[in-house]
Design brief:
The protein has helices at about 1-10, 15-25, 25-35, 40-50, 55-60, 80-100, and strands spanning about 105-120, 125-135. It is of the alpha+beta class and about 140 residues long.
Amino acid sequence: MTAEIFAAKQKINIDWKTIAEHMQLSEVWVTSACLGQNSATLDVAKKLGALLNLSDEAVTVLQQFPAKGIGPTIPTDPLLYRLFEICFVYGYTIKELINEKCGDGIMSAIDFSMDIKKIEDAKGDRVQITMNGKFLPYKVW
């Protein structure tokens, strides 16, 4: 499915932002679904299939419940590794500040949104990643 989507995307020369705008959905969510990390509803899968001229099989696969995640090991892709590195270096700081501000709990990756932007800078372009997850306090019983 993903290979078919990438081929269609290249064939019609369209980017993720334009696809997402056509779908009236988040660029991050649409990209994630196309990479097999989220499942689409029938309506969303059909609309994406029509836009990209996907096979019926790809439209069906878009609707399947995915196995989320990237695997049991730290990725070797440099960009992905650097995201892990951020957690290695700042993970306990992020945890401490979330817990201090919100209490003992976690940030949901289910009730969650994310935005990725390119910030132009004279010293070199920058990447801004904004994550917004619902705080879930640990239950006391």
